[in-house]
Amino acid sequence: AAAGAASAELVIGWCIFGLLLLAILAFCWIYVRKYQSQRESEVVSTITAIFSLAIALITSALLPVDIFLVSYMKNQNGTFKDWANANVSRQIEDTVLYGYYTLYSVILFCVFFWIPFVYFYYEEKDDDDTGKCTQIKTALKYTLGFALICALLLLVGAFVPLSVPNNKNSTEWEKVKFLFEELGSSHGLAALSFSISSLTLIGMLAAITYTAYGMSALPLNLIKGTRSAAYERLENTEDIEEVEQHIQTIKSKSKDGRPLSARDKRALKQFEERLRTLKKRERHLEFIENSWWTKFCGALRPLKIIWGIFFILVALLFVISLFLSNLDKALHSAGIDSGFIIFGTNLSNPLNMLLPVLQTVFPLDYILITIIIMYFIFTSMAGIRNIGIWFFWIRLYKIRRGRTRPQALLFLCMILLLIVLHTSYMIYSLAPQYVMYGSQNYLLESNTTYSDPKGNSTISVPKRCDADAPEDQCTVTRTYLFLHKFWFFSAAYYFGNWAFLGVFLIGLIVSCCKGKKSVIEGVDEDDSDISDDEPSVYS
């Protein structure tokens, strides 16, 4: 009966997870359709963007599922549940591990093959003289470089030994044989882990650039709001009149037939360009001022302020916890050679103290972890939307509602895929023991004894699972297996956390100093994604 009840609960859990997948797909479709350009929308790139974004969100949702499953197998008193025997536990662990294998393999496929192929295919499509076969051949040629990089990472990860042969006098053939045996014993885990860790390193750089800034910009933008469309339109009208006066002044110099000087011609051209932009802004401002959506957003203004305050509180919880966790590693870890890994905590941080309290009321701790992960994703989206996509100092694309080019959406999804990979390590940095063991307890024999009719007995008390727990008493999450295969990646992530904190503080200062955003921010001289005949509401 107990086993049947447990099975029913697991079925309900998987049903909820299935509904979550449907919700993720619906959100991805709405998000991509919201930002893609209506003039340049293309079926293949749209499907690729939706699929990649869904994979990113599903992968991020697997962490709380992994933690829940290892915790669900044990009672709070430290004993395993009746149905959770060794075989069932192993099956659950393997299911989660295969889930990670599948999702991480799909991410490798998207990052190194599918997204580059679609991107280069669409780039070739802009040339009207090329046929379909030529487009495919050219896209495959450029994609081959990404595939070679992926193959190289897998090979390096597969044959970098995590341990050394015991016999130092072994022959070269024996050493090679040892590498293949180690690869077979790990079932390819090291190869995949190395490739994913390499991408996670790039995701760390993306998180430092976009997520850290988005965490400060998103809440403050919600709190400050945007400028009034009516006030902006009044200012724009004054600017139009001023520019028209300058144009008339320059043209009046040639009324008697004299040609304009080169300097006056350049100035006239600049003023005419400026006038076209201002008139474009006038049309957009007029549309937005009379839009029902603007009035609806104005009614929701108090709700936006509440959300902004909530988001800044979550950001402060995240940043303070990350700072204390990194400080703990700096003071109590074994140093860079161990990847700054510590087991347990010596300096408590707010999140690490809050999670054990929430564990007493199911499922508050999982809700909090899910909120933090989703907040991490949405602030990353906000950071990319505010900063745009850059290659060093060159801006490649802007992310604008209803005007984002297909190539920009592909870049957006690739960046989010990389950031999601880094999310698991960020959560581990905040609460290492929780990410490793969830809410598991194990039975620890106490030194206290008591007398009963059969003789003296030892009391066993439940204790929270940690690194000192017996291996057969506590199940480690599958996430942890992918995080710490290679110490040098862990060391890089440690220094990346300090950089993340620095960029967040800089972004917070910049966001506080900046004024309110324009209601049509993005309609300017160099914005090729904005057309005259496609007004849209920006908020």
From TrEMBL:
Transmembrane segments: 6-31, 43-63, 98-122, 142-164, 189-213, 305-324, 366-396, 408-428, 486-510
BP GO annotations: clathrin-dependent endocytosis; gastrulation; insulin receptor internalization; protein localization to lysosome
Keyword Transmembrane among UniProt keywords: yes
Single annotated GO MF: insulin receptor binding
Keywords from the named record: Cobalamin, Cobalt, Developmental protein, Gastrulation, Lysosome, Membrane, Transmembrane, Transmembrane helix, Transport
Primary location group: membrane
InterPro entries referenced in this protein's UniProt entry, alphabetically: LMBD1_LysCbl_Transport, LMBR1-like_membr_prot
Topology of this chain in the membrane: Multi-pass membrane protein
Localization in the cell: Lysosome membrane
Pfam families: LMBR1
GO cellular component: clathrin-coated endocytic vesicle; endoplasmic reticulum membrane; lysosomal membrane; plasma membrane
Keyword Membrane: yes
Quaternary data: Interacts with ABCD4; this interaction induces the translocation of ABCD4 from the endoplasmic reticulum to the lysosome. Interacts with ABCD4 and MMACHC; this interaction ensures the transport of cobalamin from the lysosome to the cytoplasm. Interacts with INSR, adapter protein complex 2 and clathrin heavy chain.
Family: Belongs to the LIMR family. LMBRD1 subfamily.
Record-given protein name: Lysosomal cobalamin transport escort protein LMBD1
Native species: Loxodonta africana
Primary gene name: LMBRD1
